[in-house]
Design brief:
The structure is a homodimer. By secondary structure, chain A is α/β, with parallel strands linked by helices. The first copy, chain A, has helices spanning 17-23, 33-50, 63-74, 88-99, 117-126, 147-156, 205-213, 223-228, 240-256, 258-278, 305-316, 342-358, 368-380, and strands at residues 6-7, 55-60, 80-85, 103-108, 131-135, 137-138, 143-144, 160-164, 183-187, 198-203, 282-283, 294-298, 318-319, 321-322, 331-335. Chain A has 2 domains: 18-256, Type I PLP-dependent aspartate aminotransferase-like (Major domain) (Aspartate Aminotransferase, domain 2); 257-380, Aspartate Aminotransferase, domain 1. Helices cover 43% and strands 16% of the residues of chain A.
């Protein structure tokens, strides 16, 4: 095992040293004035990152717990719920809604396809649903959907809109209020550059109203407890250290500026795609400006992606992600979410090139890194 | 605000520096071999601390999420559930069971009372229930109940036994398997000496059988997902850094030895009670060897406990806990859970003595610290 490690997965993502240091400060009490101030600042920063004036609730939980909070607070048995599914996380929405007894309709695409607003409009016209569940960045495929257009169509049809923004928040534009999104769910461990362990949900007034009428049982994720506890900070003992880290990370993000961060992510995606293509690899992610979060790449015929992932780790200490399910032998994914610069991309590409060559795959040598650097430079400073 | 801080609450508790350092290591991927090995070791150590061969499930969550996991997986609407309630957390069990539609019966005591096994036997004989929810250490009052005797009675009545051991696990004896406890719920942030953010549940075979029959909706806390995911580690992205810290903390606990840790906690409780009595204060916790987790103390008439707590913090950087609800003006609580030695107790007592004196309370000066040290020495080396 190599001594130096590179975490290049789409989450958990690398955590900046000043964030790690904040998580390792001596423990403080969650009801004391220091933590209350810290918590209030972190929530205020989250509102800025989400671009919302709605309530932002913070849960000590994985992202999936945040998803469940949305379903448990908005879905009563029998409710019509439309899930737009184009990968692993769209399927998770559908499974969750099913567990809570929803009448689940799927607008389903092949994995890797980009959902279309006109399909959603037609689906809602044919078969109305009061709640639409969307995935912004489908981490399993690299597809970033056009949530602005999808949300507009859902709003027009009178539905509440819930968005899984776990891997997109802070990486690609998301305008919670301007786009009329009722609920955004995200997590600490992706573009927010903090360790895993916190999930968040933004809640609009119409979502609060629906929450009050929902009959599904919930306690830990009962949004109303978090709203009532605003004065106290949190209703239950939060992950104090992770909140401290998240607060510092959010400060870094806002200092860089959200627009700059979005441009950087778009350029990183561009660099990664151009480099991969230059060495002759086929993209699974759309070769499109929108794919700024994670790049999904197919291995050449005969080159097993599982073997590639293993070899990258064992030879070079580089961790990238594999593909889900049937795609496990053909797909690998390079994350570029959060604390990344172009040299993380060139490191990934250089190592992939080396390992695939050694596996006997027909790879163009010596061009990927240069092409990635060029593409990055073009993207950050367009002509 | 004083520069040096002392966290003397019953949770979150102070975290040893080697544990903090482990939480601040560079982030690793939760599906990689490093984390899988770390996770497996942490779970194995938890089994040793819980003294169980049952499955131990680890959730990224506050302790209350662990409680909800027990209720969501074991309670279907209409199920008869008996909650033994003698404080804040007994009431939380009852509220949770109620949310899931249980037919909730309470065996309720005054706060500060110790539940009696014979009462539980009678209650179950009069009105059988398939599930009994107990609190081991009632953090709101300092009472540690005799879970061995209570569980024996519940087992005899054919009920499954679930124990809230959030503030007791690692501080006072708990024999999950030997006492026939089906489910133990605990958290990372008390005697386990790690930051908050992880909850655990031990699950016996009869509890697994009941879980399979339970109809309540659950997804994130669905125990079956965690059992199926044993090979992968966790079904959802866990709080990687907190698991790393917990693993180190559990190593420290097992290195000290559980019996030594129990004796230390008993001696700390004894020292705290003797010191408080020596300065003329009245105990709210039972003056009993069992009260080893947190000491609840009444302020003298006319001395507002809220003012005491605030003054300790502002003048000396010392955080102790106040009382819940009606007790807020009369009660304060000194925690001695986890990474504590006798000088934490003498610090707390010395500062309480100083502040209460300055508040004009009739306090015996200059005896508490000496008496606490004597009591500690007697407790750790009985004649």
């Amino acid at each position: 095992m190599a001594a130096k490690r590179y975490l290049l997965t789409p989450g958990p993502t690398p955590v900046p040293p000043e964030v790690l240091a904040a998580t390792a400060a001596p423990m403080i009490h969650h009801r004391g004035p220091d933590f209350k101030a810290l918590y209030a600042r972190a929530v205020d920063r989250l509102k800025q990152v989400c671009r919302t004036d709605n309530d932002v609730l913070l849960f000590t939980s994985s992202g999936t717990g945040g998803f469940e909070s949305a379903v448990a607070n908005l879905v009563s048995p029998g409710d019509a719920v439309l899930c737009v599914s184009h990968g692993e996380f769209g399927e998770r929405w559908a499974a969750l809604a099913g567990v809570y007894g929803a009448d689940v309709r799927r607008l389903a695409y092949e994995w890797g396809e980009i959902p279309r607003a006109e399909d959603l409009a037609r689906a809602l016209a044919d078969d109305p649903a009061g709640l639409v569940l969307l995935v912004h960045s489908e981490t399993s495929t690299g597809v970033v959907s056009d949530v602005e257009a999808l949300a507009a169509v859902a709003c027009d049809a009178g539905a509440l809109v819930v968005v899984d923004a776990v891997s997109s928040l802070g990486a690609v534009p998301l305008e919670t209020d301007a786009w009329g999104i009722d609920v955004v769910v995200s997590g600490s461990q992706k573009a927010l550059m903090a360790p895993p362990g916190l999930a968040l949900a933004t809640v609009s007034e119409p979502a609060w109203e629906r929450c009050e009428r929902t009959t599904s049982p919930r306690f830990y994720y009962d949004w109303r407890r978090y709203r009532r506890a605003v004065e106290a900070g949190t209703p239950f003992t939060p992950a104090v250290a992770t909140v401290a880290g998240l607060d510092v990370a959010l400060g870094l993000i806002l200092e860089e500026g959200l627009e700059t961060a979005f441009a950087r992510h778009a350029a990183l995606g561009r660099a990664c795609r151009e480099g991969a293509k230059a060495m002759g690899l086929e993209l699974f992610s759309p070769d499109d400006e929108s794919a700024a979060v994670v790049t999904a790449i197919l291995t050449p015929d005969g080159a097993n992606a599982k073997e590639l992932v293993l070899s990258l780790r064992e030879r070079f200490g580089i961790t990238v992600a594999g593909g889900h399910g049937d795609m496990a032998t053909r797909l690998f994914r390079i994350g570029h979410i959060g604390w990344f610069d172009v040299f993380d991309i060139t490191t990934a590409l250089a190592a992939v090139e080396l390992v695939l060559s050694d596996m006997g795959a027909p790879i163009e040598r010596g061009v990927a890194v240069t092409r990635a650097l060029e593409a990055y430079a073009e993207a950050v400073a367009p002509a």
